[in-house]
Amino acid sequence: MPKIIKPMFDILLQVDTLSKATEATVAAKESVWSLLMKGGPLMIPLFILFGIAVFVFIERLIVVRKVSQIADNFMSMIRDNIVTGNIAAARSLSKNTDNPIARMIDKGIQRIGKPIDAIEKSMDNVGKLEMYKMERNLTILSVIARIAPLFGFVGTIVGLVLLLKDFATIANPSVSQIADAMYVKLITSASGLIIGMLAYLGYSFLDTQINRTANRMEAASSEFIDILQEPTR
């Protein structure tokens, strides 16, 4: 019997420890949430800005990741088809590839036979349109990165003004009371700064990825013009 009771006791002890750990985690989460709620009404627009920033970042990240995917040998295949005079195969390849580079090259293939300047201009116009598609809604992250800290500072200032007004009616407020109250009022500033920082990091990351794609588009455009000037076989 003792050999059976001891393992059961150990299991019950582990369950009790796990239960206490879970309760402590839930309590910590609740305390963080309740602390954020003490920031005042201006925490609501901060939460809204944070939600918008997360949505825009994820949506743009999916778009940028999708448009940046293209086969490494795409331009090599375009070169082989054009140099050998198989324009139809080059057009079919570029038309069936869902990528900004491919759409830009497809426009250039459609203009084959016209002056080089006209081909470059038409490809540049497509490139600008593709850049606009990639950068669409990206400025929202930039705006949030700027205004979120301002919302936080406004919330802190308003809270401190109301706090000083309340303390004016108290004869001898203690230092601990003042410190606790100011600590709570600074929540909006901290939240605004964190949201603004995250939005700025998201904007910078997406902007870097878009610039990489833009550089690849410029390189592909230059390579395509060079291909057109090569002698056919």
Give me the secondary-structure category. mainly alpha
Q: List the secondary-structure elements in sequence, H or E.
A: HHHHHHHHH
Low-confidence stretches: 1-15, 18-30
* DSSP, total strands: 0
Percent of sequence in beta strands = under 5%
Number of helices: 9
| Outline | rod-shaped
How far apart the termini lie comes to 93 Å
Number of domains: 1
What would your notes on this structure say?
The structure is a single chain. The N terminus is likely disordered. The N and C termini lie far apart (93 Å). This protein has 233 residues and is mostly helical. Helix 4 runs antiparallel to helix 5, helix 7 packs antiparallel against helix 8 and helix 7 runs antiparallel to helix 9. The protein has one domain. The protein is built from nine helices and no strands.
